[in-house]
């Protein structure tokens, strides 16, 4: 120990030791008559006020949409510009007819006028095309989406728009949490890929159509309203798993093989995994399973199926001896 930290030196510097004063322990009591920190009635009133403000905000956006007018080139003005070129060419031809007496010279000048007229029309077409492209690219000549319009209103201090923006953010976070839980659900019957891939929305088979949810997931559904499977991006969950639901499972596997580059892993119950592997072999779906046990089972079933496939009898050679 350092000599400066000895007891005698510390007492001389800091004084003698004194125990701390006793403290009174806090007593927690519950008073059921005490009003709640947040009154449920007041909270409900505020919720109703926010809902009314957002309905009024949506109505204002509807008025904005109805009043918005796209700026376009006036068709009458465009026609007049072409007409001006034609009239100018007509004046030149009349002037040539009145001033040039030689027929051969007149024909040459007529040809020059015709060529210049074609060139002017082509120049005017290019000019009008650029003007239309400029109007199309002008951000002020585009009707804002509801989200963009709300952001614009919020920038001016509109309280209803500010509240709606907070609602947008809350909804996005909630959907992100729900989608994250769905993607991380390895217990669901389906297919999963190692990398994150965007959902795919396209027609995959007859009678099956898709619907894109607001969180970006794509639900594939039969015409009668039954859900077949859902594409969440890096995984596809099979929702139709009945004894007669061979087509949706096979369709989901084909989509996974194409989308994930022919390599994925099966998830869910062992019964589903075995059934999916059997369907892959039966329908010749060219894919490799990343899980070692699943791939070994797939190879074994494929080998067994190859042995059971009858070989075609060889045709006798022409000119050969018959047995």
Automatic annotation (TrEMBL):
Positions of region (Disordered): 296-323
Biased composition (Basic residues): 309-323
Large polyvalent protein-associated domain residues: 207-300
Pfam families reported in the protein's UniProt record: LPD7
Organism domain of life: Bacteria
Annotated protein name in UniProt: Relaxase
Source organism: Pandoraea nosoerga
């Amino acid at each position: 120990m350092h000599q400066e930290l000895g007891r005698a030196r510390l007492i001389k510097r800091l004084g003698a030791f004194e125990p701390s004063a006793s403290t009174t322990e806090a007593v927690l009591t519950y008073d059921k008559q005490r009003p709640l920190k947040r009154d449920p009635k007041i909270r409900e009133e505020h919720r109703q006020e926010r809902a009314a403000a957002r309905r009024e905000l949506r109505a204002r956006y509807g008025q904005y949409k109805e009043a918005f007018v796209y700026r376009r080139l006036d068709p009458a003005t465009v026609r007049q510009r072409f007409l001006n070129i034609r009239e100018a060419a007509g004046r030149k031809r009349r002037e040539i007819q009145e001033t040039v007496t030689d027929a051969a010279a007149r024909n040459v000048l007529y040809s020059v006028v015709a060529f210049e007229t074609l060139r002017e029309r082509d120049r005017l077409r290019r000019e009008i095309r650029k003007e239309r492209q400029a109007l199309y690219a002008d951000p002020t000549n585009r009707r804002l989406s509801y989200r963009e319009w709300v952001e614009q209103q919020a920038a001016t201090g509109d309280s209803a728009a500010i509240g709606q923006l907070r609602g947008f953010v809350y909804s996005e976070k909630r959907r992100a949490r729900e989608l994250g839980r769905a993607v991380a659900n390895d217990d669901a019957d389906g297919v999963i890929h190692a990398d994150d891939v965007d959902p795919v929305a396209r027609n995959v088979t007859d009678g099956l159509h898709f619907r894109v949810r607001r969180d970006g997931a794509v639900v594939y559904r039969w015409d009668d309203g039954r859900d077949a499977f859902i594409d969440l991006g890096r995984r596809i969950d099979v929702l139709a798993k009945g004894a007669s639901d061979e087509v949706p499972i096979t369709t989901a596997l084909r989509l996974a093989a194409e989308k994930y580059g022919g390599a994925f892993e099966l998830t869910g119950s062992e019964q589903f995994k075995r059934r999916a592997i059997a369907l892959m072999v039966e329908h010749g779906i060219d894919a490799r399973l990343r899980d070692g046990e699943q791939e070994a089972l797939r190879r074994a079933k494929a080998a067994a199926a190859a042995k059971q496939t009858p070989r075609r009898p060889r045709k006798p050679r022409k000119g050969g001896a018959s047995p």
